[in-house]
């Protein structure tokens, strides 16, 4: 697979049709049920014909103490080499078919063991209490490539604390949209859908776990998991579930999609670990997209200082 090298420039410089939305307008534009058919008509399109979201500027962003200062991958790289099996198996498929997906309106169901009421929340209501920040993270795919991405988002823990899970909630389970009419991969049944992921509660509450709504200061493109996706930088990429429609506080460890598909290759924990090889390839090295030479993979993708103690006493070769 040959990756075209793109110059490292801000997305705002390569997107002439940049839209100047302020935060409040973004929240309204990104809102799901709150807009509904009437809102869609105000935006000038009938509800049934809404296209992939135009990108919107996310405004002032607070920088994060957790950001890496490594070279960031270009916007072009981040948005054209993707894994999103709902759009197909090839790395170019998500970009190629991204416009098939409608992300407005968007609602997220939050339910399970919690004190707040279970309900379908408009994306606007999911986002509105939170302050967005920029977090430049390494993302290490299980296929031994990696990128550095300037995500925009807010800590998953802030959302969890809002919904007040009870002591019975030991895990958080996430689901991606199931809509075969727009996802050709779901029509092809190339995996078991909907795509499911999960985190143990302490992992979900770790300050590094991010709910992301943007990249390079703008709302996510569909190929990156619009309008809201998870980013768990110390774990292999498949844990970072895209286009989330359901968040559930559960008692039992969720059966995540790749573990169901190929259990001896993909586990639940999926912590980046150069010492535990994938059955079909080594995990010791990785290729940073855009670089010619491979580099060493770091334990926990270099985030051990923040996360390693959560796994004290666990055998990470058995819990892969
Ligand atoms: N719903 C869904 N989420 C998904 C995937 C997918 O196929 N479906 N692929 C995962 C994998 S394997 C990786 S490496 C990352 C890639 O994220 P990116 O394309 O934004 O870099 O998304 C993850 N999230
Ligand atoms: Mo991945």
Task: Enter the CATH topology name.
Answer: Sulfite Oxidase, Chain A, domain 2
- The figure for the number of domains is 1
Q: Which percent bin holds the helix content?
A: 10-25%
CATH homologous group name = Oxidoreductase, molybdopterin-binding domain
Describe what you observe in this structure.
The protein is α+β, with helices and mostly antiparallel strands and 320 residues long. The chain has a single domain (11-311), classed as Oxidoreductase, molybdopterin-binding domain (Sulfite Oxidase, Chain A, domain 2). Helix content is 19%, strand content 21%. The chain has helices at residues 11-14, 23-30, 36-42, 75-80, 93-97, 123-127, 156-163, 184-188, 201-204, 257-261, 304-307, and strands at residues 62-63, 107-112, 119-122, 133-140, 145-155, 171-176, 196-200, 210-215, 218-219, 229-231, 244-250, 285-288, 295-296. Strands 1, 4, 5, 8, 9, 10, 12 and 13 form an 8-stranded mixed beta sheet that branches. The longest helix is centred in the first third of the chain and has 8 residues, at 23-30. Residues 1-51 have low confidence and may be disordered. The structure holds ligand MTE and molybdenum atom. Ligand MTE is lined by residues 82-86, 139, 141, 176, 195, 224-225, 237-238, 240-243.
């Amino acid at each position: 697979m040959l990756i075209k090298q793109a110059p490292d420039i801000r997305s705002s410089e390569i997107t002439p049709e940049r839209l100047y939305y302020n935060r409040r307008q973004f929240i309204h534009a990104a809102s799901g049920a709150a807009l509904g058919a009437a809102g869609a008509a105000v935006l000038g399109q009938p509800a049934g014909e809404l296209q992939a979201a135009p990108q919107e500027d996310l405004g002032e962003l607070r920088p994060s103490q957790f950001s890496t200062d490594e070279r960031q991958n270009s916007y072009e790289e981040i948005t054209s080499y993707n894994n999103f099996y709902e759009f197909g198996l090839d790395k170019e498929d998500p970009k190629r078919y991204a416009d098939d997906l409608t992300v407005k309106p968007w609602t997220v169901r939050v339910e399970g063991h919690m004190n707040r009421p279970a309900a379908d929340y408009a994306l606007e209501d999911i986002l509105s209490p939170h302050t967005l920040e920029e977090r430049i993270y390494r993302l290490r795919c299980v296929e031994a490539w990696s990128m550095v991405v300037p995500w925009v988002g807010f800590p998953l823990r802030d959302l969890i604390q809002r919904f007040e899970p009870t002591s019975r909630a030991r895990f958080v389970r996430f689901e991606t949209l199931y809509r075969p009419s727009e996802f050709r991969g779901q029509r092809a049944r190339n995996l078991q859908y909907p795509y499911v992921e999960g985190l143990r509660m302490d992992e979900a509450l770790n300050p590094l776990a991010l709910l992301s709504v943007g990249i390079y200061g703008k709302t996510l493109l569909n190929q990156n998991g619009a309008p809201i996706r998870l980013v768990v930088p110390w774990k292999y990429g498949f844990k970072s579930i895209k286009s989330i429609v359901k968040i559930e506080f559960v008692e039992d460890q969720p059966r995540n999609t790749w573990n169901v598909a190929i259990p001896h290759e993909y586990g639940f924990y999926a912590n980046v670990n150069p010492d535990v090889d994938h059955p079909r390839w080594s995990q010791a090295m990785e290729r940073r997209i855009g670089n010619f030479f491979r580099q060493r993979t770091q334990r926990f993708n270099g985030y051990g200082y923040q996360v390693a103690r959560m796994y004290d006493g666990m055998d990470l070769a058995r819990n892969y």
